[in-house]
Design a protein that fits this description.
By secondary structure, this protein is α/β, with parallel strands linked by helices. It contains 8 helices and 7 strands; from the N terminus they run ααβαβαββαβαααββ. It has a single domain, classed as Rossmann fold (3-Layer(aba) Sandwich). Strand 4, helix 5 and strand 5 form a beta-alpha-beta unit. Helix 2 packs across helix 3.
Length: 221
């Protein structure tokens, strides 16, 4: 999935497979309680930015939850892949959800504006420790209130689940390989907390979430 020369058809199949895995694991459910809490505190339309959004399945699912609960979201999302952004735009159009999409390298490129909440799902494990800390610092700079980073957590049980779930969800060989590699490359909750400290995110809290996930929540003073 990280290969810029990846065949577009194979990339599309992999994106669809990842969307199914996100739906099965209800990745949006991990983020929603914190997003809703900020919405209740801030009031009005909540500006949300999703980083490394892929095909946009998590922010679009958050939009669905928001509509059901009467919360108004101003959705934005970015990714380094134009292919992923095209699929995100197509999905948003099919669902009738407005989302502002743009290409952006969230590790190295600064953000020109800030948002109430900045979210990211299943991206941190793609980065080594130096780049992960840099990403967290950059992501936090765009958050007026809260940064939420959800990711896999490394443990043997999660590895077995990733192997089985990826094969149930999709025919994509890329997803089959990446699912196992991703768990092996993931951080533990303690390591994620240390990364937050290296990024200067004092007071950031890391908690475990089902299934074999963890969530970093950092709030600006």
């Amino acid at each position: 999935m990280d290969d810029p020369e990846l065949d577009p058809a194979a990339h599309a199949l992999a994106l669809r497979g990842l969307a199914r895995l996100n739906a099965l694991s209800r990745s949006d459910r991990i983020l929603w309680p914190a997003v809703r809490e900020v919405a209740q505190r801030v009031g009005g339309r909540l500006r949300v930015l999703d980083l490394a959004t892929g095909s946009g399945d998590v922010p679009l699912a958050l939009a669905g939850r928001a509509m059901r609960e009467g919360v108004e979201l101003d959705l934005h999302a970015c990714d380094i892949s134009e292919t992923a952004l095209t699929h995100a735009g197509d999905r948003a159009d099919r669902l009738g959800i407005h989302i502002n999409l743009w290409r952006h390298d969230a590790v190295t490129e600064p953000f020109g504006r800030r948002f109430d909440v900045v979210t990211c799902s299943l991206f941190l494990h793609h980065l080594d420790t130096a780049h992960a800390a840099r990403f967290l610092k950059n992501a936090a700079s765009a958050a007026d209130h809260t940064l939420l980073v959800s990711d896999l957590r490394r443990d043997p049980a999660g590895l077995a689940v990733a192997w089985g779930a990826s094969r149930l969800a999709t025919r994509s060989r890329i997803v089959h390989v990446d699912a196992v590699k991703s768990v092996r490359a993931a951080y533990t909750p303690q390591e994620m907390g240390e990364l937050a400290g290296c990024a200067g995110l004092g007071g950031g809290e890391v908690c475990t979430r089902w299934p074999w996930r963890m969530l970093l929540r950092w709030c600006r003073d």
